[in-house]
Amino acid sequence: MALISMQEKKILIVEDEGVVALSLQAVLTKMGYSVAGIAVTGAEAISLATAHRPDVILMDIHIKGDMDGIQTTEKINALMDVPVIFLTAYADDETVKRAIKTGSFSYLVKPYNPRELYSNIELAIYRRRMRDRAGSNRENVELLLTKAPDAGIILDMQNAVVFANSAAETLLGWTQEELRGKKFFSQVSPTVSTAAGPVDETVKGLLSLEALHYLPPLAKVTTKSGRLRTVAIKTGFIREDVGDNRHLLVLMQEHISPL
C-alpha cells in the first residue's frame, strides 16, 4: 500500500493500551500519515487535539480516566470540527447508539483491517474537505456579516471570539485581530441597561447568582477606549451540519434613546 503526499495528513491516536497504540502508530506511519500524538486519557486527547488540529482522530471508546472515548469526542466536537473514527473491541447496541449520537464518521471493531482503516481515514478527510469547500453555515454567516450594517460577532462555546465584522470594529474600537480569541464577556463586559425601564426581577435574581453569562436585549458594552455604549442585542446559534451547535451569533445595534 504505497502512498504519497500524505505528510500533511495528521492523525491523533487515542488508545490506552500501549502495545496497541504503538502498533497502530507503525501502521499509520507505513501508510504515510503523520501521527500527531498518542493520548491515553480523554483529557490528554482534548489537549493534543487542540494543540495539533489533526485531520482525523482514531478514538478507542474504552480509555483510562473519568471520560470514555464517546464523552471525549463530545467535548472535542464542542471545540473543533474534526472527523472521529471509533476503534473498539465492543460493539453492543447501546455503545453503538452513543457513538452515533456524537456524529462520528465511522465505527471499526477491533481487530481492524489496515486496508479498511486506510479507506475510512481517506474518506473522512475527503468528506471534511468537500464540506469545507462547499461552505459551512458559519462561513455563510460570516460572508453575510461582512456586508451587514449591524455589528456582528461569532463566539465559540468557550465564549471566545472567532469572528467580528467591520461594523463590530467600528462600534467597539478593536480590530478583528485584536478581538479574535478574546473572551467576549471579559473584553466587552455586557451589562443590563435600564434605558428601556427597570430590570426584570427574574433576571435580577439570575444575575445575582453569578452563575451565567447573560446577553440582555438592551445592554451597556465597553469599547476599547473605555466608553460605555448602549446597544440592542440579538443572538442565535449557528446550525451545524453534524453534531451539536458550536457557535453563537451576537448582533449589536447602537440604541438611541428617544427624546
Descriptive account of the structure:
There is one protein chain. With 259 residues, this protein is an alpha/beta fold. It folds into 2 domains: 125 residues, Rossmann fold, CATH 3.40.50.2300; 118 residues, PAS domain (Beta-Lactamase, 2-Layer Sandwich). The protein is built from 10 helices and 11 strands. A 6-stranded antiparallel β-sheet has the order 7-6-11-10-9-8. A 5-stranded parallel β-sheet has the order 2-1-3-4-5, with helices on both faces. Helix 4 links the parallel strand 4 and strand 5. Helix 2 runs parallel beside helix 3. The longest helix has 21 residues. The chain is elongated, with a radius of gyration of 22 Å. The N and C termini lie far apart (76 Å). The relative contact order is 0.10.
Q: Gyration radius, to the nearest Å?
A: 22 Å
The count of domains is 2
Low-pLDDT ranges: 1-7
CATH class of the largest domain: Alpha Beta
**Broad structural category:** alpha/beta
Percent of residues in helical segments?
Answer: 25-40%
Largest sheet: 6 strands, antiparallel
Q: What is the approximate shape?
A: elongated
Can you give me a brief rundown of this structure?
The chain has helices at 18-31, 42-52, 69-79, 93-101, 114-134, 137-145, 166-172, 176-179, 184-187, 201-208; strands at 10-14, 34-39, 56-60, 84-88, 106-109, 151-156, 161-164, 191-192, 218-222, 228-238, 247-254. The chain is of the alpha/beta class and 259 residues long. It folds into 2 domains: 10-134, Response regulator (Rossmann fold, 3-Layer(aba) Sandwich); 137-254, Beta-Lactamase.
